[in-house]
């Protein structure tokens, strides 16, 4: 492993994301030697912080994240924090970019950074265009190293605003320089989908419409909106989780086999997969998508969404979505994909189930015990549990010849899980490496908006009957009905 030379310029350096994810991730890369002497970080934001204060913040961030005790005051943490510089910054003020460039050039020489720069926009997207434009016009972009722009969602609120945003940043950065973060793509178990599908004869040969009955994806959260009502009231679950995380997972599950596991092959197959998802008419959208908003829990201890801090008392924002997607991909055409996500559900769990078809013939049907055969189901546990379960049928172990289902189970141990790099660490590492495999391409983002825009616009025309689910359950009854009408049920049913 080679230590990298790079300057990080973090816009939104005083923010929550930087504190909770970026500083700890950078530290872990430092601990592992992937960052060593030749790196520096400039944090910018409006607040007037000193470098000393910034160092304290960075060390606190490391400590708060710490699995190991005493990381804060370790010599390593001090040394790490000394690479951080703070520059107070107003994103609209041209002069401030000049100051930023001067500091960047100084650090480039001091730390031997070879002109490599990573601009991390950890702030509201309405500033992305302004920042990108100034980085170019004020010549922060170097010509002797790489320049990469990492941006966080939301990439717009519909296709049109996403396009505007993309045009604005594309005026300064090429697609190859843009790294759109979808942190689900940094999760080990999501990255493992390709290995599972294309690294196993048994699974690969069954992954098609002849054998798969339906696919189910659940991203359940137990937490409510927390302190993020300001953002959430402008988003809702469809934009917050379906447009990005869920559709990225759908593309990985339904894409055709890439020729090789490379960024460009993968991107082409994923774009194809998303283009194969049917765009619904407004009527179809209403039939195939369900929205929900949480009420109080059964014990009346948790607030309903409309009484959370910062939400509108008549809020029409959905905290739950369930939907049925249809694909026209050659190998999976006709296999329904059921997706759901929501806040304040029964448990935090992300899981994917591949439900296989019933056997065409059941030779045990007439045996003494009148055996019904359960469907084979392959479940991928993404988080917090990481593992796999395969449900198969075996003899029941009684005198008569009965057949019963059992689970083949594999779950990563806590020790193994602790070794898996956290999503942000993985993605920052990839960005340093210039590896775009696990970042979202513009074509993917645009197509995902086309898919959800119809649903959004249809919903926006009608008032919802909210709240419509009890906190701590798995969402509104209509989400169960969505499968029941197809004579199916959700596999995950806590
Ligand atoms: C984020 C959403 O993208 O993902 C949040 O904005 C959500 O609303 C979060 O809570 C869930 O991520 P994870 O990794 O905890 O499943």
TrEMBL record:
<protein>
    <recommendedName>
        <fullName>Glucose-6-phosphate 1-dehydrogenase</fullName>
        <ecNumber>1.1.1.49</ecNumber>
    </recommendedName>
</protein>
<dbReference type="Pfam" id="PF00479">
    <property type="entry name" value="G6PD_N"/>
</dbReference>
<feature type="binding site">
    <location>
        <position position="183"/>
    </location>
    <ligand>
        <name>substrate</name>
    </ligand>
</feature>
<feature type="domain" description="Glucose-6-phosphate dehydrogenase NAD-binding">
    <location>
        <begin position="9"/>
        <end position="191"/>
    </location>
</feature>
<feature type="binding site">
    <location>
        <position position="153"/>
    </location>
    <ligand>
        <name>NADP(+)</name>
    </ligand>
</feature>
<feature type="binding site">
    <location>
        <position position="240"/>
    </location>
    <ligand>
        <name>substrate</name>
    </ligand>
</feature>
<feature type="binding site">
    <location>
        <position position="221"/>
    </location>
    <ligand>
        <name>substrate</name>
    </ligand>
</feature>
<dbReference type="GO" id="GO:0050661">
    <property type="term" value="F:NADP binding"/>
</dbReference>
<feature type="binding site">
    <location>
        <position position="46"/>
    </location>
    <ligand>
        <name>NADP(+)</name>
    </ligand>
</feature>
<dbReference type="GO" id="GO:0006006">
    <property type="term" value="P:glucose metabolic process"/>
</dbReference>
<keyword id="KW-0313">Glucose metabolism</keyword>
<dbReference type="InterPro" id="IPR036291">
    <property type="entry name" value="NAD(P)-bd_dom_sf"/>
</dbReference>
<feature type="domain" description="Glucose-6-phosphate dehydrogenase C-terminal">
    <location>
        <begin position="195"/>
        <end position="490"/>
    </location>
</feature>
<comment type="function">
    <text>Catalyzes the oxidation of glucose 6-phosphate to 6-phosphogluconolactone.</text>
</comment>
<feature type="binding site">
    <location>
        <position position="187"/>
    </location>
    <ligand>
        <name>substrate</name>
    </ligand>
</feature>
<dbReference type="GO" id="GO:0005829">
    <property type="term" value="C:cytosol"/>
</dbReference>
<dbReference type="InterPro" id="IPR022674">
    <property type="entry name" value="G6P_DH_NAD-bd"/>
</dbReference>
<comment type="similarity">
    <text>Belongs to the glucose-6-phosphate dehydrogenase family.</text>
</comment>
<dbReference type="InterPro" id="IPR022675">
    <property type="entry name" value="G6P_DH_C"/>
</dbReference>
<keyword id="KW-0119">Carbohydrate metabolism</keyword>
<dbReference type="InterPro" id="IPR019796">
    <property type="entry name" value="G6P_DH_AS"/>
</dbReference>
<feature type="active site" description="Proton acceptor">
    <location>
        <position position="245"/>
    </location>
</feature>
<feature type="binding site">
    <location>
        <position position="343"/>
    </location>
    <ligand>
        <name>substrate</name>
    </ligand>
</feature>
<comment type="pathway">
    <text>Carbohydrate degradation; pentose phosphate pathway; D-ribulose 5-phosphate from D-glucose 6-phosphate (oxidative stage): step 1/3.</text>
</comment>
<dbReference type="GO" id="GO:0009051">
    <property type="term" value="P:pentose-phosphate shunt, oxidative branch"/>
</dbReference>
<feature type="binding site">
    <location>
        <position position="348"/>
    </location>
    <ligand>
        <name>substrate</name>
    </ligand>
</feature>
<dbReference type="Pfam" id="PF02781">
    <property type="entry name" value="G6PD_C"/>
</dbReference>
<keyword id="KW-0560">Oxidoreductase</keyword>
<dbReference type="InterPro" id="IPR001282">
    <property type="entry name" value="G6P_DH"/>
</dbReference>
<keyword id="KW-0521">NADP</keyword>
<dbReference type="GO" id="GO:0004345">
    <property type="term" value="F:glucose-6-phosphate dehydrogenase activity"/>
</dbReference>
């Amino acid at each position: 492993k080679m230590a990298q030379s790079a300057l990080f310029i973090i816009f939104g350096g005083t923010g929550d994301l930087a504190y909770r994810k970026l500083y700890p991730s950078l530290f872990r890369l430092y601990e592992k030697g992937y960052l060593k002497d030749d790196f520096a970080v400039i944090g910018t934001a409006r607040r007037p912080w000193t470098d000393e204060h910034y160092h304290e913040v960075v060390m606190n961030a490391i400590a708060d994240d710490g699995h190991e005790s005493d990381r804060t005051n370790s010599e390593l943490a001090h040394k790490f924090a000394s690479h951080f510089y703070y520059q107070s910054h107003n994103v609209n003020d041209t002069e401030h970019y000049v100051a930023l460039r001067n500091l960047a050039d100084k650090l480039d020489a001091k730390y031997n950074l070879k002109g490599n720069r990573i601009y991390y926009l950890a702030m509201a997207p309405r500033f992305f265009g302004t920042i990108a434009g100034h980085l170019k016009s004020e010549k922060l972009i170097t010509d002797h190293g790489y320049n990469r722009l990492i941006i966080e969602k939301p990439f717009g609120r519909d296709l049109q605003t996403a396009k505007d945003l993309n045009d604005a940043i594309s005026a300064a950065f090429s697609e190859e320089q843009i790294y759109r973060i979808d942190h689900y793509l940094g999760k080990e178990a999501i990255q493992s989908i390709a290995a599972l599908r294309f690294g196993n004869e048994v699974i690969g040969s069954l992954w098609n419409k002849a054998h798969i009955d339906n696919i189910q994806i659940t991203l359940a959260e137990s937490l409510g909106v927390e302190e993020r009502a300001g953002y959430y009231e402008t988003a809702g679950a469809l934009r917050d989780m379906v447009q990005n995380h869920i559709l990225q997972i759908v593309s990985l599950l339904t894409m055709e086999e890439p020729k090789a596991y490379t960024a460009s092959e993968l991107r082409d197959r994923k774009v194809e997969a998303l283009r194969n998802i049917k765009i619904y008419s407004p009527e179809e959208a209403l039939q195939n998508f369900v929205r929900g908003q949480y009420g109080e829990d059964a014990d009346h201890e948790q607030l309903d969404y409309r009484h959370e801090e910062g939400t509108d008392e008549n809020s029409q924002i959905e905290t739950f979505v369930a939907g049925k997607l249809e694909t026209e991909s050659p190998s999976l055409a006709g296999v329904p994909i059921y997706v759901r996500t929501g806040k304040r559900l029964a448990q935090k769990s992300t899981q994917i189930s591949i439900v296989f078809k019933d056997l065409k013939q059941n030779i045990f049907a007439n045996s003494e015990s009148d055996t019904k055969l359960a469907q084979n189901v392959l479940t991928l546990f993404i988080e917090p549990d990481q593992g796999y379960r395969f449900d198969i049928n075996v003899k029941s172990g009684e005198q008569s010849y009965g057949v019963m289902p059992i689970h083949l189970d594999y779950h990563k141990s806590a020790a193994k899980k602790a070794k898996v790099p956290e999503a942000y660490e993985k993605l920052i590492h990839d960005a340093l490496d210039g590896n775009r495999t696990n970042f979202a391409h513009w074509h993917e983002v645009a197509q995902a908006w086309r898919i959800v825009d119809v649903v959004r616009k249809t919903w926006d025309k009608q008032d919802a009957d909210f709240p419509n689910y009890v906190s701590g359950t798995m969402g509104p009854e209509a989400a169960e009905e969505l499968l029941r009408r197809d004579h199916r049920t959700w596999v995950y049913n806590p």
